[in-house]
């Protein structure tokens, strides 16, 4: 449904380093760079897709901060995302685990990025623990 989205960040270099490490376990990396922005997406977005589904752009962060959820391919990817995001300077905002208040197999982890945006990795798959 959404082609691309982005957020404003206070330090492009700090956020670029954070997202590069945090999104790698989910299969996303840098696909485009400009002096004031960086686009992340899958390495091979497909024919006709210019890439860059998630953008960070130098500026004053939005208030209130946004929540962004990235789809993961399995529970292990959620776990690795959480560890990588914390190692990259993120702050824990919800350890990996089931969130049955959303649905029975909603497996997710949450971190706050360097500007305080709530970043989530989520897996909805049938092999998530019940």
TrEMBL record:
InterPro entries listed in its UniProt record: Glyas_Bleomycin-R_OHBP_Dase (IPR029068), Glyas_Fos-R_dOase_dom (IPR004360), VOC_core (IPR037523)
PROSITE patterns (UniProt xref): VOC
VOC domain: residues covered: 1-124
CDD domains assigned to the protein according to its UniProt record, in alphabetical order: VOC_like
Descriptive protein name: VOC family protein
